[in-house]
Amino acid sequence: MCGVAGVLAGSYAEPAGLDELKRMIAMLGHRGPDGYGFYRDDRIGLAHARLSIVGLAGGFQPIHNEDRTLWISFNGEIFNHVELRRDLEARGHRFYTRTDTEVIVHAFEEYGPATWAKLNGQFAICLWDTTRRELWLVRDRLGILPLFYARRGDHLLFASEAKALFGGGRVTPAFDPARLAQVFTHWSTAPHGSVFAGVESVPAATAIRIDSTLALHVDRYWQPDFATDPSLANLSLDEAADRLEEKLLDAIRLRLRADVPVGVYISGGLDSSVIAALARKLDTTHMHSFGVRFTDAGFDETPQQRLVAGHVGTEHHDILCGPQDIQAALPDVIRHGESPLVRTAPAPLFLLSRLVRESGIRVVLSGEGADEWLAGYDIFKEDKVRRFWARQPGSKARPKLLGRIHPFAAVNGQKDSPLWQAFFKRGMMDTGETFYAHRTRWRNTAWSQRLLSADVQAAADDASFEAHVAAHLPDGWSRWSPLARSQWAEIATFMTPYLLSAQGDRVAMANSIEVRYPFLDPAVDELCAALPDRVKMLGLRDKLALRRLAARHLPAEIFQRPKRPYRAPMTTALFGDGAPDYVRDLLSPDALARYGLTDADAVSALADKAHRQNGRMAGEREEMALVGTLTLQLLAHYVHDELPQRIRDQRAALDRAEIHVLEDRALNDRDADARTATPQPTAA
């Protein structure tokens, strides 16, 4: 993984200066601590911060093709680069590096825009075509890696993170109130946006071509198809497990390709344990594994993690995470994530990636994605129960099935209460609604919007989030099963914009760690989508094919274990007698008034209640509201009070780093002529 940034100038605009590009890429030093590269011509400036994983020698970017008509600044990994390179060399292409990056420019020479669908990887591509004077901004199928852009006058800026856009000086950070409100309902902004006004995100599976007039041409180059493959309709559970194991082994084999050691995350759950077991089957050399432990027994999975590590034979490392650790990590998580959070779950993962780095490992495999593609979440069971209940809405027995799901949401008989059933009954009859499975979750989280200021609440438009997602329904969606529709909605509205960002790329790259996801391999996903529902979920039994596969490699304590969602302590870690100073400071009336994003009276009342009760709140929605408000204040403080100094500090650090600069000769000649004529000011 790396960091990318750049500026494309309009036909009659001045190109970005080298100093502006340096200020931008300096903000991404955490993504690429191994050196910096730049390319400039009379239209574009490309910048790159390098994290060396493949092609350690000679892999500095930007990289070009043979005649230097194509230039690329690339973040990510192309896992099938060996096979693509072999084919391209057979077609006459000549390479000057051993990197996967160079494969992309030669593939684009050969296949043009059809290249994107051929790439098995996780990537954000910035490719400049000097002949056509066109820039391509391209993101991988599932949006594993981020890529943002902003238009300012006759310039288009782009970067891996919004802070790099701000670092260059052309883009001033300002919050978009409507998108802030989206976070307080959907946990993230819509997939095409950010919380900053005018800062957009390249959506997953999307290639944006920017022409010479700076017009954007958007193409979605891939979409999932959850229609059951007729040839797989009659598969037995064992046969489904066979197919899944075959595809996962291929995916892991590709993701073990690296010029540095590759480790594994072990959470103690089914998904990461399967990945660890299969990785050890392929790689019998010394392998490191990593896990998070919690001082709070309600969140801890230490016995399961150690059981798996011992069973598969890894050298296991773990961190013990308590309230003070979450308190210390949360401000850094927000700085790197660039968005408020309604949960603290990313904080322990930030600390875990730091442990990976300190252990000398740069790449880890994760089990993320199995729940989405193989129906492991309780939201799918909830959807099934509510649809079943909706067929007989007067039934007394059917709603009792709700007591078998969400094991951590309510205890002590609350699941049998009329209040619990009424909560899930609301909107139950709207079974044809696009987001039927997700409406209950969003309604619950939206309660937290009452802590936002009147101006932000007035700008709230939750329908715009849903309208954007619904506008990109895949072909054939209406013919999919209800389970398949729910799976797609979970991928589009939660996995891509929240999970792979807040709990994936941002916390890992904050510590220069690359996370790879075998369950998100294209061949694995296409198989999972095509499998019949009955080998994914039968009744309320989940991930059947994966559990059958796991039974071949793991102890019964793991493959028979019920799904336990990854969670971390929230208000109990942040409020009460042990609350850190920054919580009280940022939620004080003065601080709330200073940023003007919240309802100060409502926040103060709920925060005071949390302090009195040592963070033990009546329900999860109150916890999410407080965490969301606190992290919004943390983000506002970072943007308004810390960012200018950080830009200066990072720029100074870059001056001490290894830098490679490539510039078009005509640009050099023009700059030289300008210097001998009249001195020009530095671009800002």
From TrEMBL:
<dbReference type="GO" id="GO:0005829">
    <property type="term" value="C:cytosol"/>
</dbReference>
<dbReference type="InterPro" id="IPR017932">
    <property type="entry name" value="GATase_2_dom"/>
</dbReference>
<feature type="site" description="Important for beta-aspartyl-AMP intermediate formation">
    <location>
        <position position="368"/>
    </location>
</feature>
<comment type="similarity">
    <text>Belongs to the asparagine synthetase family.</text>
</comment>
<dbReference type="Pfam" id="PF13537">
    <property type="entry name" value="GATase_7"/>
</dbReference>
<keyword id="KW-0315">Glutamine amidotransferase</keyword>
<dbReference type="InterPro" id="IPR029055">
    <property type="entry name" value="Ntn_hydrolases_N"/>
</dbReference>
<dbReference type="InterPro" id="IPR001962">
    <property type="entry name" value="Asn_synthase"/>
</dbReference>
<dbReference type="InterPro" id="IPR006426">
    <property type="entry name" value="Asn_synth_AEB"/>
</dbReference>
<dbReference type="GO" id="GO:0006529">
    <property type="term" value="P:asparagine biosynthetic process"/>
</dbReference>
<feature type="active site" description="For GATase activity">
    <location>
        <position position="2"/>
    </location>
</feature>
<keyword id="KW-0028">Amino-acid biosynthesis</keyword>
<keyword id="KW-0614">Plasmid</keyword>
<dbReference type="InterPro" id="IPR051786">
    <property type="entry name" value="ASN_synthetase/amidase"/>
</dbReference>
<dbReference type="GO" id="GO:0004066">
    <property type="term" value="F:asparagine synthase (glutamine-hydrolyzing) activity"/>
</dbReference>
<feature type="domain" description="Glutamine amidotransferase type-2">
    <location>
        <begin position="2"/>
        <end position="186"/>
    </location>
</feature>
<keyword id="KW-0067">ATP-binding</keyword>
<dbReference type="GO" id="GO:0005524">
    <property type="term" value="F:ATP binding"/>
</dbReference>
<comment type="pathway">
    <text>Amino-acid biosynthesis; L-asparagine biosynthesis; L-asparagine from L-aspartate (L-Gln route): step 1/1.</text>
</comment>
<feature type="binding site">
    <location>
        <begin position="366"/>
        <end position="367"/>
    </location>
    <ligand>
        <name>ATP</name>
    </ligand>
</feature>
<feature type="binding site">
    <location>
        <position position="100"/>
    </location>
    <ligand>
        <name>L-glutamine</name>
    </ligand>
</feature>
<feature type="binding site">
    <location>
        <position position="292"/>
    </location>
    <ligand>
        <name>ATP</name>
    </ligand>
</feature>
<dbReference type="Pfam" id="PF00733">
    <property type="entry name" value="Asn_synthase"/>
</dbReference>
<dbReference type="InterPro" id="IPR014729">
    <property type="entry name" value="Rossmann-like_a/b/a_fold"/>
</dbReference>
<dbReference type="InterPro" id="IPR033738">
    <property type="entry name" value="AsnB_N"/>
</dbReference>
<protein>
    <recommendedName>
        <fullName>asparagine synthase (glutamine-hydrolyzing)</fullName>
        <ecNumber>6.3.5.4</ecNumber>
    </recommendedName>
</protein>
<keyword id="KW-0547">Nucleotide-binding</keyword>
<keyword id="KW-0061">Asparagine biosynthesis</keyword>
